[in-house]
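[step 3/7] inverse_fold.run input=structure_tokens len=275
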């Protein structure tokens, strides 16, 4: 894998500790609460995360990995693999899996940090830099195989990730081609040859004020996709926002653009996974 996503250095806000509150009352209170409000509130995010199930998988290398699974009310359904930011598989990403399930997908939020969850940028950076690309690729492809054969799935599979996870959404789709790939401001492959392995279309969300995943990188990716003969499979959207604009718990959150990106992602997955 040529691009590991290990140089993505965007920061966010430190996670807030959850206040004590009865889980049953919180879960009941999630009805009618917006997705953004759930992600922005650590208590609600934890309650939403607890509605997912932890699943484990033994890998050929001997490692055992875990993930958070959410299944929609109506099955069979297409599947989506979610990949977390540099913070690790925290309550927010598990809550996102729940949201995808509510939208009609078998959603699996995988863990590329070995269970570690950071609450400060320094800790997040350290654990991101410690990720082994070969092991991460094995983890992604194993879970993708698992999802393709899941009893509740239709066999159709998409990937989506944010920041560090955005890079790995693309890397995973190159390693084991899927039906649709979504990238939220993730580090991008700049060479054409690996991109020729892509099977399905790619949707990218990027921010004009992003100093990390900037226009030069995105244009390099766009050129590489064209050289690989994949120009017609790429859709890019730019937002007048900054890196991590879709994360309600961060200082760079942009509600309007986050909602617009969500709607575009749902339409994209609807076209390529539901049909």
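[step 3/7] decode complete -> sequence:
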């Amino acid at each position: 894998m040529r691009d590991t996503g290990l140089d993505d250095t965007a920061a966010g806000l430190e996670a807030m500790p959850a206040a004590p509150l009865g889980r049953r009352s919180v879960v009941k209170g999630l009805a009618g609460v917006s997705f953004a409000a759930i992600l922005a509130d650590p208590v609600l995010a934890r309650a939403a995360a607890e509605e997912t199930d932890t699943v484990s998988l033994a890998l050929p290398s001997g490692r055992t990995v875990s993930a958070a699974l959410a299944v929609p009310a109506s099955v069979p359904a297409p599947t989506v693999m979610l990949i977390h930011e540099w913070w690790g598989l925290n309550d927010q990403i598990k809550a996102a899996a729940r949201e995808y399930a509510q939208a009609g997908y078998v959603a699996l939020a995988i863990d590329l940090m070995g269970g570690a969850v950071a609450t400060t940028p320094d800790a997040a950076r350290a654990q991101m830099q410690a990720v082994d690309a070969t092991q991460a690729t094995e983890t992604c492809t194993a879970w993708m195989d698992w999802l393709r054969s899941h009893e509740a799935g239709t066999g159709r599979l998409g990937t989506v990730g944010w920041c560090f996870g955005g890079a790995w959404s693309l890397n995973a789709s190159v390693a084991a081609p899927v039906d649709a790939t979504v990238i939220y401001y993730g580090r991008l492959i700049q060479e054409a040859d690996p991109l020729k392995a892509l099977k399905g279309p790619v949707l990218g969300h990027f921010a004009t004020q992003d100093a990390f995943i900037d226009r030069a990188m995105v244009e390099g990716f766009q050129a590489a996709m064209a050289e690989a003969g994949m120009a017609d499979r790429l859709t890019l959207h730019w937002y007048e926002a900054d890196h991590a604009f879709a994360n309600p718990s961060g200082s760079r959150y942009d509600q309007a653009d986050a909602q617009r990106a969500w709607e575009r992602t749902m339409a994209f997955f609807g076209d390529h996974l539901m049909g």
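[step 4/7] annotate
The CA atoms of residues 1 and 171 lie 7 Å apart.
Strands lie at 53-58, 64-70, 77-83, 106-110, 153-162, 180-184, 202-207, 234-239.
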